[in-house]
Each structure stands twice: as structure tokens, then as C-alpha cells.
Amino acid sequence: MNQKVVLVDDHAMLRSGLAGLVRDIGYDVLFEADNGKDFQEKLDKENLPDIVLLDINMKVMDGYETAAWLRTTHPLIKVLALSMYDDEDAILKMLRNGARGYILKDNEPAELRAALDAVVHKGYYYSELVTGKLIHSINKEGDEMAGTLSKLNERETEFLRLACSELTYKEIAAQMNLSPRTIDGYRDSLFEKLNIKTRTGLAIYAIKNGVVRL
């Protein structure tokens, strides 16, 4: 069964063309929405999408608010931000609000395919754009968050490193010779200690604090 995608963008012509492209590369378009509120109203709890392609700049309930709402109410739905903005603040804010990746609207169709495939199979998509902005953010912020790293024990740090890989939580448990329930405990502990709510957030933290290298 193909993955189900929803498009949320207030530019109807662009959205229509994008819908055709998404279908051409092998995904099903569940529906289209003009903005976050329209998306909420159309969302069927009995037939949820796998991925939401989400614009940022919308007059009624923008992408930031919509991503944050999805993270809280439907955390299994993966958000891929699709925007004209390539500035660091927009990218980091979308990632912190739960987006699994970020691509620009003027990218080639091949990158959209790569992004969708990566979000499905890896759980995230870090393009060169996102990676570059993260590196700049790391350099700018310096050691601002480094103090919290000392709060983590050796096993938590190992879990954090593995959480940045393509492994599922079940596979991480096997690699660490621990039960899935124990791994869930490490994840929840890190969420609380670091005030983070998503696996993407853990990855951003790990990159900023040198646990993993890009």
C-alpha cells in the first residue's frame, strides 16, 4: 500500500502541481488543504495520512502552529516542511516543532522524492540546506546547551547517538542488548531531561553537542 500524503499550502496552483508530482513519484494524495485550520477540519481520524507536506507562510494557522499541533495530537504523522524560506530561524523552528525534514519549493523533483522516501524509511530527511544551517547554528550558539550534556549517563549518551541513526527503537534495543521497554525509558528520560519532545529534537541536540558529527 502506498504512503498517504496530505498537502497543506495556500497557493492553489502550486499545490495542484505538487499533488500531481507526488502521485507521479508513487505516493497517494489523501487530500489538499489551504491552511492549518482547513487541514484540521478535513482530517479524518479513521484515515490519517502518513506524511504532511506543510508550507510555513499561511494566513490562517501557519506551518509552525500546524506542525506543533500535529506533534501533540498525532505524533505518528510525519511532517515534511516545504517552503520558500531558506533562513536558519525558519528551519530550526520547524524542526523544533516536530518537522522531520525541510526542503525548498524550488528544488528539483528528485529531491522531493528523496525527502519523502527518507522520511518514510529513516524517519527524517536532512538535506544539505538543513545540515548547513544546523552547523551555522552550532557555531553561533557555542556551548549554550553543553551543560545539560553532563546530566546524561554513559548509556543515555549511547542511546542518543544511536537515535540519530537509521535504526528503529527496536533495533537500538537489540544493539544495546536491552529490552524495548528499557529503550523507551531512556527515550522518555531524555525527553524530560533535555526538554525535547521528538526524535528529531534529540538529533538536533546531539549534533549541537558533538555527540554525533555531520
The CATH class of the largest domain: Alpha Beta
Fourth CATH level, the homologous superfamily of the largest domain: Response regulator
**Tertiary shape:** globular
Mean of residue pLDDT values: 85
Q: What fold name goes in the CATH topology slot of the largest domain? A: Rossmann fold
- Residues in helix, %: 40-55%
Main β-sheet: number of strands, strand sense, barrel status? Answer: 5 strands, parallel
Low-confidence stretches: 141-146
Measured distance between first and last alpha carbons: 33 Å
Strand content: 5-15%
Please tell me how large the radius of gyration is.
17 Å
CATH-defined architecture of the largest domain: 3-Layer(aba) Sandwich
Task: Give me the strand/helix succession.
Answer: EHEHEHEHEHHHHHHH
Oligomeric assembly: single chain
Would you give an account of this structure?
By secondary structure, the protein is α/β, with parallel strands linked by helices. The protein has two domains: 4-137, Response regulator (Rossmann fold, 3-Layer(aba) Sandwich), CATH 3.40.50.2300; 144-208, Arc Repressor Mutant, subunit A (Orthogonal Bundle). The chain is 53% helix and 12% strand. It has eleven helices and five strands. It has helices at 12-24, 36-42, 63-73, 88-96, 109-121, 128-141, 146-149, 154-163, 169-175, 180-194, 199-208, and strands spanning 4-8, 28-33, 51-54, 78-83, 101-104. Strands 2-1-3-4-5 form a five-stranded parallel beta sheet, with helices on both faces. Strand 4, helix 4 (88-96) and strand 5 form a beta-alpha-beta unit. The two termini are 33 Å apart. The model is unreliable at 141-146 (pLDDT under 50).
